[in-house]
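Field: COMPLEX_INPUT
Field: COMPONENT_COUNT = three
Field: RESIDUE_TOTAL = 1156
Field: MODE = joint
Values follow.
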Amino acid sequence: MDEITRTVKYEADTDPHFAEEIAGIARGETLRACIQCGNCSGACPVSPYMDYTPRRIIAMTRAGFKREALSSTTIWLCASCYNCTVECPKQIRITDVMYALKQKAIKERLYPKRFPVAVLAREFSAAVRQFGRNSELWLIIYLYLKTNPFAMLKQSILGLRLFLQGRMGLKRERIPMGTGKKGDLQTIWNALDRADR
Amino acid sequence: MSETMQSAEPRVGVYVCHCGINIAAKVDIAAVVEFAKTLPYVIVVRDYKFMCSDPGQELLQQDIKELGLNRIVVASCSPLMHEATFRHATEAAGLNQFYFQMANIREHVSWVTADKALATRKSQALVSAAVRRVVLNEPLEHQKVPVKPNVLVVGGGIAGIHAALTLANAGKQVTLVEREPTIGGHMAKFDKTFPTLDCAACILTPKMSMVRSHPNITMLTYAEVVGVEGYVGNFTVKVKKKARYVHEELCVGCNECVEACVYKEGRFTDTFNEGLSKRKPVYMPFPQATPSVVLIDPESCIELKTGKCKKQCATACTRNAIDFTMTDEIVALEVGAIIIATGFQTFDATRIPQYGYGKFPNVYTSLEVERLVNASGPTGGEVQLRDGSTPKRVGIIHCVGSRDEKTNRHCSRVCCMYSLKLAHLIHERTDAEVYNLYIDMRTPGKGYEEFYDKLLKEGVNFIRGRAAEVTDWTVTPEEEGKLVIRAEDTLIGVVRRIPVDMVVLSVGLEAHADADEVRRLFNISCSKEGWFLERHPKLAPVSTFTDGIFIAGACQGPKDIPDTVAQAGAAVAEALALVDRGFVELEPNTAFITKELCSGCHTCIAMCPFSAIRYNKEAGVAEINPALCKGCGTCVAACPSGAAQQHLFTDEQIFQEIEGVLNYV
Amino acid sequence: MNHLYYPGCSLKSTGRAYEESLLAVCATLGVGLTELQDWNCCGATSYMAIDEVKAFALAARNLALAEEQGKVGPGTPTVDLVAPCAACYLVLAKAQHCLEENKEVGGKITAALAAAQLQYTGRVVMRHPLDLFTNALGLDAIKAQVTKPLTGLKVACYYGCQIVRPYATFDDQYHPMTMDHLVTALGGTPVDWPLKTRCCGGSLTGTVQEVGLRMSYHLLKEARKRGADVLLTACPLCQFNLECYQDPMKALFPDHEPLPVLYFTQLMGLALGLERARLGLQRLFVPFRQPVGV
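Field: COMPLEX_OUTPUT
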């Protein structure tokens, strides 16, 4: 390593309300009860790839290390397998805490740039919001366009095979939107948007 | 004190306690004082920081003398806490102690009420109720009942053994009841004890044989208490002695019968060895079993199951000790005090499936490993795996069934230390690489931290992290054929995979599965986890809410041997204080019948749970024996004519109390 | 037996063979499945990362539609909704839990549904096809219809994460056995292996490919090591990850050997004697050639 960096966390740089905020988004999650046993990290199948283990994310959240927690790759690498949640000896719903952090990271635009998982979440939800259903082909195309257009070429063989085997179509799956009739999804979106405001 | 003064017009003194800030922070004391001044018969109202202190008590005593008070109300804590204190203070000033009444404005008000105004109003209501009631209080005398001198100790582990010996040495006649066929409890299974590493058997077995030979101790093993009646100082206890099919007084423990059994080899699970070896239907639990008497297991004995055995055991016994016709018998005991020392059970490791206990043969519980390292255990003290090989790498997983919301929330207190001990013994005997996976290392105790330090220096590995799983999924060549423990090394922040030959699960301590039945039997309380509840966690740690019944050892909560023995000694001291005094004073809150009102309808007689009521034929009325009455009030509530009343709880007193509350809410 | 059926997006594209085989098997076994009309995407794991209330609203709309189309009422107190996709199954079940437990979220969603004249009253029972076959139909009924038993076929049953976690309702969370019992009923031999519920990588295979590939690679490797001829899945994403990426997997891990990965319903269909085409077997990337019923 050529450079050395100085790291000290000043109290002024922590966010004392961060833990409460995240707990609130995760429906009153009791992450303050964490005893830092690391069972979550040990149970997590993806933790070897994370910049911070899930245990450290909980510690950072509790201590108000907002920027570090929200810009970590950890929260985006969580595959939602719920192993940490069912194993946690303090019954902290860690998967839901990860979801809360993801939501907050997207809102605050603190997620790692061009990190495909965050982009996927955004593209996926945008498509569902617009069409009511998700079309895998279109989702993948958007994902690669926004993250790494060159990698799309590498995937095109897989796409072609899927197409030939009848496992991926060009058609956009959708349900009628904005009809105003009973059960209209657009009406539900509008009601939720109004409630948000 | 003159009769005239006590029967005169009531003169009430009210004393409001601040209890430091326990009450004063939530209740407006001045407002309660001002309010109390407006109540009928109240002569004086004072408040004080701690009414239970000497100056606080002197305050009311002085007023009794100087102002001629004849009724006292203290508004403070729960009667459980200080009723006795203030009754004594009242009596010391020359007034009958039952002219005192307590209003609980701490447990019932300040500790449980958020709003200050509401807390103040409730305090006023309770003071009002107490004042109205105390006016009607009558002078009563405590009833003295003699105490039986003998003591029962339930449970023959180290706590029960120590308690029985200490009582017996003090000259008391003690009966020690043990459920298993031998005394010794868990400690008899251990090889070494932490932190001194002295031999468990060397310090325990002499005490066991002292129990056996002590002239003042009657030992009932393979026996269970099945009934408890009576009250403090006067308990009648029924004990069921299970049939051993061997006469204890004849058997000398020569084991000839075991040799002769038609089963040439052991075939049945040896529970003393935690299932690591097999025994025959006729067996000695372990070599130093006390009493040194064999027994026959009816579940596996051919004769007892089918009646078609050659009965070689019986033939082999030169003393004719074996008797297949033996049945369970009931023994009745009369005792003045009871010490309960029933111990604990270890956590069932199959409840955490990800650790693979019961699936992988090389995953052991700590208690199994205690047997493996024990010189008198199934391997003669050799640490061997089930295939006979010696493990080269061993992982010890802490907190199995402890500190876990899904199993047991509590810390079992002893596991860190016994895990260190096992780590040391395994490392010493096999030279294996030992890994301890812990959440927090808890070593408070004399010499305990020093023991941890010794282990650190010995080169035992410590990984701070709760093991996530034990798996036979292997990834690298060195993992092949081994079990892999996966855990985050939280001090490094990296997930590690530790390949091992042997996994030791440090199982926690939990209350016995039947703790609730035992609690009911003795009429004591237990926490929701099943630990027997002490009367006060600090100031009455071995007493229970039932007078005359004491608790000792791990049945009250997880504890190690030194603490268990200390607690057993404390329980003995309490029991001695009771039986050596020779008598107990009973609350005079007994029921009585007003003859003129009794119609002789018999309703109360059938209802009384203590058989304290009989029918007087000549007078045609019911009569209550105050020595038997427990003051439960059942007859009072049941009596259709109002003839049954209860001292301290007359209808009029209760109505006035209710009125007092209702007038001010 | 009649049930409402929630296919979810994947069963209409990459997981088409799952739908084909499920419907064919159900038709053979006399289990009626009626597709929920006008269903919308469950929201999957992605929507939860954006806005949980809206994610639950997506799920709740489907639950409300199920109550309406299932004609829940006095005679029909509950309606079964069959969700073959593990992610759909979990998201819908999770929404049910949240609506029941959390008044604040529940209130918001009830109000939004009401705007579209819908309501959900908690009367939908979520069922995964494994639950349906083992518990509602029963293995004996299936066994009776097996014409080509899977004799000698060694099967690694892979449950994945989301049908057993965090709500283990119809099977054991640590050692699930429903699929194993089903395989036994079909005449096959399930292998005991330790990774039954370990995550396949989920959507990571599509996003951070190296991570997902390694996770899937290990699953396949261990299944092979334990002697499996075929691996069965109960989720379209698991099947997609484990099967369609075996070529890139081989590039990254040269010791990888191909292993057929089927939906459990495809193997059921074979044992029931259905034609391969009806079960979508032609859509496999790694063909399953092992003859059955011989």
